[in-house]
Amino acid sequence: MMSSTTVRHPVTLAGAVIATVGAVAFLTLLAADLLGLFTNPYAGLVIFIAGTVLHGVVYMGLYHLLDLRDFPSPWKPLAAQALGNALVGIVAFGIVESLPGLVERRRARRVRR
């Protein structure tokens, strides 16, 4: 059985946070795949928002359960973070999706010259 000092050891907490982030990412992507959100390019917005909200809820829940910190009103900062993550994620996906076409266009220009 674990004592309260073992549970609050920084290494134990770091491992728990890493495992929680991985579990949240897995659950979010699994739910998105089951709902068929990967077929629509704008569904990434929903995926990023849901992932950020789910991560925030689990993260704050763990902190509250371990009595490390209380969050008085986390919904406004969480919503702002979710929208920011969604916008950055959509831009990043757009850039990554355009890269293969960029390479092909560059090769086509070299052949014409």
In short:
The protein is mainly alpha-helical. It is built from four helices and no strands. The mean pLDDT is 76.
Detailed description of the structure:
This protein has 113 residues and is mainly alpha-helical. The chain has one domain. 80% of the residues lie in helices and 0% in strands. The chain has 4 helices and no strands. It has helices at residues 4-7, 10-34, 43-65, 75-112. The chain is elongated and about 65 Å long. The mean pLDDT is 76.
- The assigned structural class equals mainly alpha
Query: How many distinct helices?
Result: 4
Q: What is the averaged pLDDT score?
A: 76
Gap between N and C termini:
73 Å
Order of helices and strands: HHHH
Largest β-sheet summary: none
Shape: elongated
Radius of gyration: 20 Å
> Roughly what percent helix?
over 70%
How is the secondary structure organized here?
Layout: H1 4-7, H2 10-34, H3 43-65, H4 75-112
Entry keywords:
4 helices; elongated; single chain; mainly alpha; 113 residues
